[in-house]
Here is the input.
Amino acid sequence: MQATVSEISSPALHKWKKIAYGGMQPGFDDNHTDESFLEAMVMNANVVRRDMLKVMLDSVSISEYLCIVALVVLVWTYTLRSTFSDKSLLLLDVSLLGSGFFILLLTIERFSFNLLLSYVLKISFFITGLYVLSPIYHTLTRSISSDSIWALTASLVVLHLFLHNYSGFTVKFPGAVENPTFTSNISLNASVVASLLIASRLPSRLHVFAIVLFSLQVFLFAPLVTYCIKKYSFRLHLCFSFALMAVTLVCVYRLHRLLFVFLLAVLVFVNLLCPYWLIRIQEYKFEINGPWDEAKLCFNIAE
Amino acid sequence: MSDQEKLRILMVSDFFYPNFGGVENHIYYLSQCLLKLGHKVVVMTHAYENRSGVRYMTGGLKVYYIPWKPFLMQNTLPTFYGTLPIVRTILVREKISLVHGHQAFSTLCHEALMHARTMGYRVVFTDHSLYGFADVGSIHMNKVLQFTLADVSQAICVSHTSKENTVLRSGLPPEKVFVIPNAVDTAMFKPAPERLSSDEIVIVVISRLVYRKGADLLVEVIPEVCRLYQNVRFIVGGDGPKRVRLEEMREKHSLQDRVDMLGAVPHAKVRSVLISGHIFLNSSLTEAFCIAILEAASCGLLTVSTRVGGVPEVLPDDMIVLAEPDPSDMVQAIKKAIDRLPQIDPQAMHLRMKKLYSWHDVAKRTVIVYDRALRCSGQNLLERLSRYMTCGAWAGKLFCLVMIIDFLLWHLLQQWQPDFDIEPVPNIDLTQCQHEEISWDFNEAESLR
Here is the structure.
């Protein structure tokens, strides 16, 4: 096109420009690849380099929760074997509830009397409801064979651990902005169903009430309590976690050797191998950014 | 033009009229101009509603609406081999010499290109969009693109940014990727006969009101501009999920009399909306080329746009004001544009656009690409399989398997219905008899004769 030539009749006639207008650039084919090709590409701009120690310390909260779940399973096992009586289970419930509240009282800064009152009220409703419903739970899944119950419970506990939100909490923290995610809700439900399945294998209604209350207390509030501890002081969190791990390992050792080895292996895997692995595969991180990326808005969209 | 030089081209895409958008426009105008150059063009797309079968469009453009229903966003269900028989029949019937696929989202395009390669045809692919590398959707899309482009003869992108993107996504050598921009039908987008008064400044926005088009930026920018300039009015054309937000904004700042919301604007009416304004505002967050800017510039509007994707390449610096996709920067850009308005002459701008962009130029440049594609040496299956093998440890083997099955199915089809059993279509020259009906301007082409 003749018109095109006049359009680009600047002194730099023979210089290629990154423009789309004005037809084919004189002297250059359409497949011309300039030196400036991919000049604007940025690689690995937002990659965070992690160090080993930090990743290891962060992974402690995972193993902490693993141990909590292991302890719950231990209590289930001992109850099923009738090692624990219903009285001792109720005692355990009360002491857990008391200590949980105590820790919350100590660690949350803005813990008013009204909040405590509303908590106590809610929990008393909850306990009453559970007590009324425990005969139903006792017989709800009785007709299912025990083998199916064990298999289902085991898989539900694994699902619970797999989907659990280890960095946050499963029930809404007083004053927290974000809500629990969808997967963490599924995880919580899996754990509730698992404890209800176990309840049908117990000898009496009081047992059922005590064990369901215990499991729900732990699954609902243990993440909240550990989160509060972690927020209050990271050192305390570490001490608490290691103490918990030690206690769990000892208890599991007394129950079964093989399970002990398995738990130890899992803990080592989570705390040592996984962080190492993560650091290693960081090298392969390859992130490409450039002008073709969708622009990000710099303000929040209030729907 | 001798018969030997005449190409018989099959355009394939899921996106074609009656659907509307950049790709549809591109295919239509490119086909029309190729027909004008004496080549034969056939378009293949999926059925729209009850529009199924063969249709003729302006200038004797033959369109096959194959009886496959779209299932998601106007895409056909990916079946890999489901379209092989019909693609083969069309290729043989129409004695096609080259297949040209459009748009990376289009499953029909990917399938047709795969079958065409299996049958030994040369294929050209045009990428009309940009894609990131970060999210799951993009990663899978890029793998599909890599599969299609692994064996493509030549590829075309609509802007240099889009070329960079495509080369990175597909691993194609950059020499095989051509940059041929879109164009605009300047005859359809003429400025208003007389100049608008400059007492009141009208800013026009025409886009789908969705997140990707930056509707949320508009929500921030419009009240701020209205606050700064008492004589500015906005006209917003387009519909979409974000329309509610814009209307909320209008109510919240009591701008009902200064912001007109037109709703969806049919393409035929776009010009009449454009010529009522002084400034065109584009707030897209990602854009490979943006035809809307061309249409506005052709109507003599000064454009204010976000600096994203291929937009900075589209117009010379004195016809566009660019801003970062950030409300305060965009308000600054609009200020700059308002200051610059007195120097803008819509008629002069229109004449300039006529020189800068033309579909005939696009068609000529595309023919060069076709010639190159036809000069590529043919390859047998084994040579091509080795190319697929390099696409990845697992993906490579999977791609090879897909191609081998396609090859076997093709041979099976040939046994079942040999090529010579398929009746070729007779040559009917429709360009002459329909010449009067051609709705858009061919002044340039006629003046060349």
Residues 57-282 of chain A form one domain.
